[in-house]
Amino acid sequence: MMEITLTHYLVLSTVLFSIGLIGVMRRKNLLMLFFATEILLNSVNIALVAISHFYGDFTGQMFAFFIIAIAASEVAVGLGLLVLWFKRFNTIDLDNMTSMKG
Amino acid sequence: MEMYLYIALFAPLVGSLTAGLFGASKKTLFTGVFASGMLFASFISSLLLLVQVLQGNTYHVEMMTWIATGGLYVPFGFVVNSVTVTMMMVVTTVSTVVHVYAIGYMDHDKAFNRFFAYLSAFVFSMMVLVMSDNLLGLFIGWEGVGVCSWLLIGFWYHKESATWAANEAFIMNRIADLAMLVGIFTLYWNLGTISYEGIFASVGTADHTMLVVAAAFLFVGAMGKSAQFPLHTWLADAMEGPTPVSALIHAATMVTAGVYLVVRMNPLYDLVPEVGIVIASLGAFVAMFAASMALVNRDMKRIIAYSTLSQLGYMFVAAGLGAYWVALFHLMAHAFFKALLFLGAGNVMHAMSDELDPFKMGGLGKVMPGTFWMMTLASIALAGFFPFAGFFSKDLILEVAFVGHHPILYTVLLLTAGLTAFYSFRLAFLIFTGEERYKLFGFHPHEAYKYMLVAMSPLLVLAIIAGFLFKGTYYEMVTAMLPAGEYHVHNPIVYWIMTIGTQLFVGGAVLYAWIKYKNAKVDKKVEAGFFYQLLFNQYYIPKIYDEVFSKPYAELSKMFWKLDNAVVDATVDGIAGVFYGTAKKTHTMQDGNLSSMLKWMVVGLVALLVSAAVFIGVVTNADVIMKLLGH
After folding, report:
1. Is residue B350 a contact partner of residue B419, using CB atoms and an 8 Å limit?
2. How far apart are CA B149 and CA B172, in angstroms?
3. What helix, strand, coil percent values describe chain A, rounded to 5?
4. Is B447 exposed, middle or buried (0-12, 13-18, 19+ CB in 10 A)?
5. I want to staple B393 with a disulfide (CB 3.0 to 4.6 A). Which of B189, B226, B333, B335 is the partner?
6. What is the arithmetic mean of pLDDT over B455-475?
7. Between chain A and chain B, how many beta carbons pairs sit less than 8 Å apart?
8. Residue A81: how many CB atoms within 10 A of its CB?
């Protein structure tokens, strides 16, 4: 059986990041946008933990915990706003949120 | 005593700044009264200094250093001697009177406070001009009075003609001031100093050609300020300003600055009699030239302005012939009666709702007796009847020309004296006697405020007594500084024939004016004549200037304007256009849609990643790339 090396983790991380990026670009639903953002953050977390393990340095893993904590609170706030927005406008479609025009 | 010098100099400035503080606000009587009070303080100080100078003292103070660099040292230095104190007395006397008068004259003007700020600033500049101990200080005062004159001619700036006249005066003076600067530079270049003392100490040994050049250029500067031909057109147009301004600036003080300059620089002009004779000839020419234009004019203030021009010509004749004290004496006497004449004209203008055509007046003597008497007496003084001030000063100039063996100058001046009497009494008769023509035009004239007449009375007294009362004392005083000369016709028979003859001639001119104008009849045939038209159109000189200078200049300016549009403006607009166009094309990026913004964010991220990758690639493979490039 093939051994799983750092490269594999990084490839996984890159693939996940790309999926997240495409999600961020293509999705028009605010909820889906949050999901895509989570995928982006977690792809970064995978890379951080893998590299941290590779070097035997815990700094990367600590960073991953921070990112998880911040992501959780960000989503909590974001979802709260999302619910408010939905109550008010009855939609969470991004194309309707265009009040901040240049 | 130095304190009085500073009070005389700076009190008008204090008045001006105080009035200026309230310049934008509504009329407050306080500013007028305060500015007049400051002027009175200046007058009293000048009077005390005069007493000291009469006792033989002179004062010279250096307030502070102004310019000290290399060999050039210019202080803020001020001098009180017999010549400057004479000018100080003239300036402060007339301006105090005019300030008080203006409180009444400008009574209904919205910009009352601003007027006093300007008027007092003018007096301050004039005092700097007069009292400075060097030519550069004089030049600062010279420019200061120019600016104040501009501000005051254009005081009613909503009137197109007033702003035009203000600009004309300013530009004409600028032309002359350039020549004056050249004169000052010439003196500094060759003598290494610009203080009067230094210049007078070294002119004696200086190169004669250089002195001629310097004297000529300085005189061109004086021609501008004193409105001598060919720079004379601005003075008549300057009558657009309020009448107190005409009285103070364009009759009594500023326009005499040119004469003052020649008198002050007398050691220089003494050495170059060839320049002196040019000055005298030009003066005599202007005296007659201006008087001839006054003969037919139909604008009260312009007639008096031409008369001023003519009298300035007399002063230059005296100054040019070396009779500096006579020039200064006529300057003083003229200031008194001419200011009085102008202030009287101001009363008439007020009474007639700013009507200036004397043919529409007539019989005003009954309605405004005070003004009638003052203007008549001022006209008598101007015409030079015994024993008024004009007799002593003007006859003296005639004697100077006679004694100096200049028969042509003498004849011209004598004829001009007749013209002077004619036009001044033509004006007086048209305004004050005869039928009451103003009734046809629906005017309701009234006498001016009493305090205005009271304010004018010192000038009236001086216009009457300045000649016989002051002449002796004045002569004693100024000849301490100026070359003495009695200019007396030695043969008593010739003297009496001359004096009585002049008086009869002038009297005849007045009589002729009475016959001709007591009924204000207009002779249509004469009016259509060539000479009348020539004089009435001021020898067509304004028209010629317009055609020869103004219009080609306007054309040239238009051409350059087009060039400017095609090159400079086009370049600037082009650069702006690039930015504007780019912004117009790219602003759609900011459509407010979160989704598209995120896409742009990703594009940015990718671009940064790519450039980072390229950078790293280049850095790590630097040696390979260098080889490929052939190093």
Report:
1. no
2. 12
3. 80, 0, 20
4. middle
5. B333
6. 86
7. 32
8. 11
> Would an 8 Å CB–CB cutoff place A36 in contact with chain B?
no
Chain B positions touching A22 (Cβ under 8 A) are none
CB of B150 closer than 8 Å to CB of B170: yes
- DSSP secondary structure letters along B189-237: HHHS--BHHHHHHHGGGS-HHHHHHHHHHHHHHHHHHTT-TTS-HHHHH
Token digits of residue B542: 């304004």
Cα–Cα nearest to B89, from B135, B144, B129, B127: B127
Q: Measure CB to CB from residue B602 to each of A24, A28, A100 and give the nearest one.
A: A24
Residue pair B199/B193 in contact (Cβ under 8 Å)? The answer is yes
Structure tokens, B170: 């300013």
> 3-class SS at B480?
coil
Q: Tell me the pLDDT tens digit for each residue of B154-174.
A: 999 998 999 999 999 999 999
**Residue B190: CA count within 13 A, CB half-sphere:** 20
Of the candidates B508, B510, B489, which has an alpha carbon nearest to the alpha carbon of residue B499? Answer: B489
Are B396 and B330 contacting, i.e. CB atoms less than 8 angstroms apart? Answer: yes
Q: Give the Cα separation of B434 and B427 in Å (integer).
A: 12
Answer yes or no: is pLDDT of A99 > 80.
no
Nearest to B364 by CA among B423, B296, B424, B435: B435
Q: In terms of Cα–Cα distance, which of B81, B104, B78, B94 is closest to B7?
A: B78
Note every long-range contact of A14-19, with CB atoms under 8 Å and residues 24 or more positions apart, other chains counting.
A14/A43, A15/A43, A16/A40, A16/A42, A16/A43, A16/A46, A17/A43, A17/A44
Asked if B347 and B290 count as a contact pair (C-beta separation under 8 A), the reply is no
A84 at B interface, C-beta within 8 A: no
Contact between A51 and A60 (Cβ < 8 Å): yes
pLDDT (mean) for B426-451: 83
Which amino acid would we find at residue B531?
F
Instruction: Kindly report the nearest CA distance between residue B570 and chain A, in angstroms.
Output: 29
Structure tokens at A56: 């035997």
Q: How far is residue B433's CA from residue B376's CA, in Å, rounded to a whole number?
A: 11
Distance, in Å, from the CA atom of B280 to the CA atom of B316, rounded to the nearest integer, reads 6
Tokens read off for B423: 């036009």
C-alpha closest to that of B384 among B478, B484, B301, B314: B314
Element holding B242 (H helix, E strand): none
- The answer to whether residue A94 neighbours chain B at the CB level (below 8 Å) is yes
